[in-house]
């Protein structure tokens, strides 16, 4: 088996009256919603001049008044809520935090809420009759399903972690939520990015040539794209800045033509990343000029340019580099999207046209942001069960650290701004009022000391007067993020949004070491979008809570967990390494030594790990193998809450194949997960269906490979090496799996 996976939202008077549409125009075939879609698209194509066509293939597509076509800007963002709009909107935790929930249902609902708020803003823009400006459209350039292969990559926070399976399932969930379930109209349009093999570094992304092995390409970098494109039916794809094996991704024939269009039969639209077309001739130096570059991208199937160079496609036609028919092919894919969001239809025909701005930041939306913040946070250490804190026994808390009262940190990047951002300081002071004294001291900046502020020793002296110290540190999107956005660099350990050292910044470590001298219990709340090597912290503090960038309700979620009003249930979507020295060279795209699947050292905290205030036990595993390797295998097990507190468990299924010395084989691979809520003493039976693909491996040529050896199927609260669980074994006899 070859591992290539063969297997307008308003009435016409509202939208077009300001554009001087005439009565005759209103009955043109492309405006008739009762005609077949392809007939309408062909009618509109036939009415456009070549210059009008290529103008419509830029992200800022201008109005065409003679046909009553409004301007439409394709560029919009919705990474963790509607982004970059002046209106106040609901802001959810950053993507990496939502990955830590291992909750596809919650993520799909988050996507649905986001598209609801986005539809409200879109509908308001339509009513204004001035076209759809940037950050007002319904074409969201999310999700980012690149693999977080290295914790130094600043944009890793935008992803769903290091594992292809988890990334695929979480990415598919948000696509379903954003795009809706209407049989014809799209509620919004999702876009899988960045296609493909794009996971840093940031500083050289406009010139970088990624050269993964065929094995790594098909085993790690492409599976999530296959899930979203082939199985989920996402309608958009964004090609990446970098080259892949010497060709820019947006003009890469094997990637864009062979895999995306021919093998995967993708019929949606492809957009460039913003400014990527300039890189063809000014960064990658693969093309002599803009016209030849635009032509190659078009012929490779790139339909839309985020930039202003695609207007040169008309010149390409005149020079014979491509035909107008090639232009039509791409434009048809773009128009199909515009028709399916209802741009050219009467308001009453579009099921989402009645969504009004009253839904934005409604109580249900804010409550879901709160829930996802709670579910996302991962308790990494809890020495002597110091947590949850007993509020009746604490008189004062020293709240220290650069993120204890830093609202911008909670919003990460690609964010929308809510009406209220609840920091830990705000939450603690509200929650306990005069019952517990909150002694807040920032102590230091994220990467440098504060000017004219007390020294670390002075801060520690004051903190020693409190019963417990809560240190809220980490990073922010000013220091880790996308090149150009992470603008607060210039400090040792940071480069264009990436990190060169995965430890906490030295200024925070110095403060923590002074706080340690007080002898008071120390709880570290770490806000980052990536894994931090907290080796000293793990040995010296009493508790560690990984809080990520938790969105508008992060402060309340943190307080809930610290005081036991919510039982922590997040699980790590990344490996936390003990040191930067554990990492291979950043620019190497080989997966050897990377992520839990191929790292053979000892992690500080493993992928899938997370503590709870209760305990869970697994029993009664059953594997039912059907006849033939083309059939699925059903695995069931019972999970029981054996503790005294209700809580959520994230049951994880891993497959371990025997190492044969002839192929690259993962240490183990996640192939299923379920979040279940259990009261004390309660049991539930969980079930997984493992497909033939789940049970197979990838060989060096990128082919599916059925391993004839004995494989282990494990179900537990984490990886088999680090947690208790239950397992069964399968082996292949003839053409059928046998349960041992």
**Physical arrangement of strands within the biggest beta sheet:** 9-16-15-12-10-11
User: Helices and strands: which structural class?
Assistant: alpha/beta
| Percent of sequence in beta strands | 15-25%
Average pLDDT level: 94
**Separation of termini?**
26 Å
Uncertain segments of ≥5 residues (pLDDT<50)? 1-25
Number of helices: 22
Shape: globular
Give me the count of strands.
26
The level of helicity is 25-40%
How much is the radius of gyration in Å?
26 Å
Largest sheet: 6 strands, mixed
SSE diagram, text form:
Layout: H1 12-16, H2 37-47, H3 50-55, E1 60-61, E2 72-73, H4 95-99, H5 104-128, H6 164-179, E3 192-195, E4 209-210, H7 214-221, H8 223-232, E5 236-239, E6 243-244, E7 247-248, H9 253-263, E8 269-272, H10 276-282, H11 290-299, H12 313-319, H13 324-340, H14 363-376, E9 378-382, E10 396-400, H15 407-410, H16 424-432, E11 437-441, H17 456-463, E12 468-474, E13 494-495, E14 498-499, H18 506-516, E15 522-527, H19 535-540, E16 543-546, H20 554-562, H21 595-598, E17 616-625, E18 633-641, E19 647-656, E20 669-678, E21 683-690, H22 692-695, E22 697-698, E23 704-705, E24 711-716, E25 725-733, E26 736-739
Parallel strand pairs: 3-5, 4-6, 5-8, 10-11, 10-12, 12-15, 15-16
Antiparallel strand pairs: 1-2, 6-7, 9-16, 13-14, 17-18, 18-21, 19-20, 19-24, 22-23, 24-25, 25-26
């Amino acid at each position: 088996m070859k591992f290539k996976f063969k297997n307008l939202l308003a009435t016409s008077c509202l939208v077009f009256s300001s554009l001087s549409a005439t009565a005759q125009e209103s009955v043109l075939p492309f405006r008739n919603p009762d005609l077949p879609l392809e007939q309408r698209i062909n009618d509109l194509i036939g009415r456009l001049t070549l210059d009008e066509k290529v103008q419509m293939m830029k992200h800022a597509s201008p109005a065409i008044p003679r046909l009553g076509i409004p301007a439409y800007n394709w560029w919009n963002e919705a990474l963790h809520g509607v982004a970059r709009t002046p209106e106040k909107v609901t802001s959810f935790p950053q993507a990496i935090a939502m990955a830590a929930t291992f909750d596809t249902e919650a993520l799909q609902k988050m996507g649905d809420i986001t598209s609801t708020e986005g539809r409200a803003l879109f509908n308001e823009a339509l009513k204004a009759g001035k076209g759809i400006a940037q950050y007002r459209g319904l074409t969201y350039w999310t999700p980012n399903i690149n693999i977080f292969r290295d914790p130094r990559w600043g944009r890793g926070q935008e992803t769903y972690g290091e594992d292809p399976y988890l990334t695929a399932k979480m990415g598919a969930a948000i696509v379903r939520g954003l795009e809706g379930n209407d049989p014809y109209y799209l509620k919004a349009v999702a876009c899988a990015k960045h296609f493909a093999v794009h996971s840093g570094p940031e500083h050289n992304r406009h010139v970088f040539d990624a050269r993964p092995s065929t094995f790594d390409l098909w085993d790690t970098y492409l599976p999530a794209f296959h899930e979203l494109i082939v199985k989920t039916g996402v309608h958009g794809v964004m090609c990446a800045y970098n080259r892949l094996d010497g060709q820019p991704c947006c003009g890469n024939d094997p990637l864009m033509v062979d895999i995306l269009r021919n093998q995967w039969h993708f019929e949606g639209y492809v957009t460039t990343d913003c400014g990527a077309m300039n890189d063809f001739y000014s960064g990658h130096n693969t093309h002599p000029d803009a016209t030849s570059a635009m032509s190659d991208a078009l012929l490779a199937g790139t339909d839309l340019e985020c930039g202003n160079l695609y207007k040169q496609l008309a010149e390409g036609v005149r020079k014979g580099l491509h035909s107008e028919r090639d232009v039509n092919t791409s434009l048809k894919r773009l128009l199909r999207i515009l028709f399916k969001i209802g741009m050219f239809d009467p308001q009453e025909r579009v099921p989402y046209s009645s969504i009004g701005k009253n839904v934005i930041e409604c109580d249900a939306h804010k409550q879901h942001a709160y829930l996802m913040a709670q579910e996302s946070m991962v308790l990494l250490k809890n020495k002597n069960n110091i947590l949850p804190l007993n509020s009746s026994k604490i008189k004062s808390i020293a709240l220290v650290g650069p993120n204890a009262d830093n609202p911008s940190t909670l919003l990460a990047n690609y964010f929308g701004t809510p009406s209220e951002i609840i920091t830990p300081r705000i939450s603690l002071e509200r929650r306990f009022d005069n019952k517990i004294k909150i002694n807040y001291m920032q102590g230091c900046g994220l990467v440098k000391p504060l000017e004219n502020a007390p020294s670390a020793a002075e801060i520690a002296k004051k903190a020693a007067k409190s019963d417990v110290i809560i240190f809220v540190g980490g990073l922010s999107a000013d220091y880790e993020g996308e090149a150009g956005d992470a603008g607060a660099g210039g400090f040792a350990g940071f480069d264009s949004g990436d990190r060169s050292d995965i430890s906490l910044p030295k200024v925070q470590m110095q403060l923590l070491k002074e706080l340690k001298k007080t002898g008071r219990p120390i709880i570290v709340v770490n806000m980052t979008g990536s894994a931090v090597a907290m080796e000293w912290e793990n040995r010296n503090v009493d508790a560690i809570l990984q809080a990520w960038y938790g969105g508008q309700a992060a402060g309340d979620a943190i307080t809930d967990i610290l005081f036991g009003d919510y039982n922590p249930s997040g699980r790590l979507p990344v490996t936390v390494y003990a040191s930067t020295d554990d990492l291979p060279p950043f620019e190497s795209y080989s997966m050897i030594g990377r992520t839990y699947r191929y790292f053979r050292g000892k992690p500080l905290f493993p992928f899938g790990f997370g503590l709870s205030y209760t305990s869970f036990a697994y029993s009664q595993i059953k594997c039912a193998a059907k006849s033939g390797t083309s059939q699925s295998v059903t695995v069931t097990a019972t999970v029981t809450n054996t503790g005294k507190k209700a809580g959520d468990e994230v049951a994880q299924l891993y497959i371990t194949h025997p190492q044969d010395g002839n192929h690259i084989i993962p240490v183990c691979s996640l192939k299923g997960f379920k979040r279940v809520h259990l009261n004390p003493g309660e049991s539930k039976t969980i079930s997984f269906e493992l497909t033939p693909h789940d049970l197979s491996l990838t060989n060096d040529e990128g082919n599916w490979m059925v391993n004839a050896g004995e494989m282990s199927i494990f179900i537990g609260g984490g990886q088999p090496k680090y947690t208790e669980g239950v397992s069964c074994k399968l082996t292949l006899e003839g053409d059928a799996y046998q349960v041992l």
